[in-house]
Every structure is written in structure tokens, then in C-alpha cells.
Amino acid sequence: MNKPSSPAAPRVIESDICIVGNGAIAKTTALGLAQSGLSVALLCPPSSAPAAAASADPGWDARVYALNHTAHHLLSSLKVWDALDAARVAPVDAMVIQGDGARAGGLSFDAYGAHAGTLAWILEDRNLGQALDAALKFARDVTLVHGRAAALLRDDDGAIVRLADGGAVRAQLVVGADGAESWVRGQCDIGLDYRSYGQSAIVTNFDCEKPHHGAAHQWFTGAEGIVALLPLPGNRVSLVWSAPDVLADRLRQESAAQIAERLAVYAADQLGALTPLQPELVRDFPLRLVRPHAMTSQRVALVGDAAHVVHPMAGHGMNLGFADVAQLMKTLGEREPQRGVGDERVLARYERARKEDVLLMQLTTDGLARLFDADIEPLRVVRNFGLNLLDKLPVLKRRLISHAMGK
Question: Where are the extended beta strands (E) located within 127-221?
């Protein structure tokens, strides 16, 4: 008589580092730390549906990123940049910012004035994700773990992430790269400051009648929020409209063609008529400030939106995340031989190294969001005067654009 088989023992995975997350920042962190010689377990949620087969023409992704030189350097060093579909990456050679009102101020930057080949690069989330997934398939010392985290246990000897299926990941360090609603951050009881901006970002893509010449355009409109049109390859642009909630509710009910008609008042002179690339592809997401009180805890480091969420007006939320990854790699790589990757002093160095850059971007974007959100005539005059004055100060302009470029 056959004996009943014993149930399989829950899997336990051992690694130097456990990264929780499934986005571009999590995958980049996994690649970077693995290429630094550390063993990595990348914990991703189980897929809810099989991945759709790639079509010959998947269309243009509504979600795009404006990546600066820090991000470019990091992705190049990890051999990811060259794996991107270059035909779907657009360099930004100039940026034109315009104020509001009858006497609108203006500010412009260009790559020549910044002594750079380009200011930034616009690429789709899908393009970046596919390149990262391809790199992870060939990465040594990266174990992909599909499961849901259920508990985080930490002590002086290490950390254990218990999974919902009974398995576990044991590591010396857990990296929370799991977004603004970070589960890892929540397990650490890290307090945070949260504020809604009362705005939503409306995103979609258009063909433009006139060539954009690699210029990104941004309009601070006051009552209608902040409108940005970013260059895509060819005569195409990507819209990011930070619209007040009342307006955003109306835009959600409109077609992309109706949104294009609204944009004509801003963009017609520079870009001509706008035609929706995919009329049904209009997305939106709420805008908020999330400022955790710490980027580290015992055996834990936070990166990306888990560590900070800023207003998208400058397009630097993703760039802050890539700078986190680069600094974490550097800090862990420079630790003393006797210190492990989860050593509290090592993690404290990482947090100190990122504090100034993160705080500066939080204060800048939050301050500008407050300033340009106020639809009051005296403030409108002041901010337009400030834009015009800054445009006439080349030294200050160069310092500002150099910081934005991540150089």
C-alpha cells in the first residue's frame, strides 16, 4: 500500500538582499546590486493574467518619463540603455516655460546653453520595462520570486520576508522599491507627511502638425493647472496636464480630440493642430506629496516612490529614484569589509547622502506647485516677473539646468 506523500516544505530563499517591487526602480536596483557582486531576490507580486503577446505596433504608451543624465549614466552602466528601442526614445534639446495672464513671463533652456548634447530623454514606461526584463533574464545572482509578502521580521542577524504561501526570503537587507503605498515602509512604522495637491495628471499622446524640434513645452496657466507637452519621436508629443480636480473630472469625461481642442489655446502657435494618436488612451492619476520621515530602518532601505513622492511638474520623480539606486550601490560598494549590507551605519550613510537632494526637490516642486496654483493677480505678476528675470540671468540659469540634468 502506497503511503500518502508528505506536503512539500515551504520554500526558503537565501540572498544578500531582498528587493520588494515590480517597477523600473525595483528592477534597476536588482540589476545594479547583482552586478556589484551581491546575491539578490526580487520579490514581485504574482501576475494576475498572462502577459499579452507583443504586437507589431503596440502604439505609444501614455506613461512616459523624462530621464536626466544621472538616470542615463546608471542605465548605460548596467547595459540597459543600449537595449532600449532607440527609435522610441526622443532627446529633449530645449525646454520652453511660459507663465499665465496678459503679461505672461517666459523662461527657456537649450542643450547648447547648458553645454550638453541633450537636456534629457523621453521614453515610454513599456520600452524601459522591456529592456529591464530582458536584462534580468541574463542577470547572474538575481532570483525572481513571485509571491505576496505577508510579514517582515528583523533582528540583529538579518531580515525575513514571510510570503503568503508559507515561503520566505532570508536576507541581510530588504529594499523597499514598492511605490508610494509601500508595504515595506508600512512594516517599519516610518511616519510620513501626506498632502493631496487637489490635482490629477491627465496623460495621453498626440500627433502635432508642426515639428517640435526636440523642445518640451510647459505652460503655468493658473486656473487650469500646469500643461506640459513632451517630445516623442517624429511629430508626436506626450501630454502631462496637472489639472485641478474640478477640471480633471471634466477632462475624464472628454475624448482625446476634445482635449486637443482645449490645448489649442496654448500649443497652436508652436505645434499647430494636435491629433490624438490613440483616441481611447487617456489616463489619469492623483497628485500628492508623500514625505516619509526616514529612508531607512533596521535592515531596510527605501528607494523611489517608497522614499518620496513629488509633484510631476519637473518630471523628476523617476530621476530621484534612479539617483537613490545609484547612491545605494555606491554606499554598499564602499562599506568596510567587516560591515554587512544591512549594517545600521552603512544605511545611515545612504540616508545622509540622499537627504539634501531629496529635500531640495521636495521643497522646489512643492513651492512651485503652491506658487503657480494660486490664481491671484499680485502673485501672477510676481511669478511672471520671476520667470522673465531668471531668463535674463545666464549664470543662474546654467546652475539650475545643470542640477535638473543631474550633472
Answer: 142-146, 149-155, 158-163, 168-171, 173-176, 192-208, 215-220
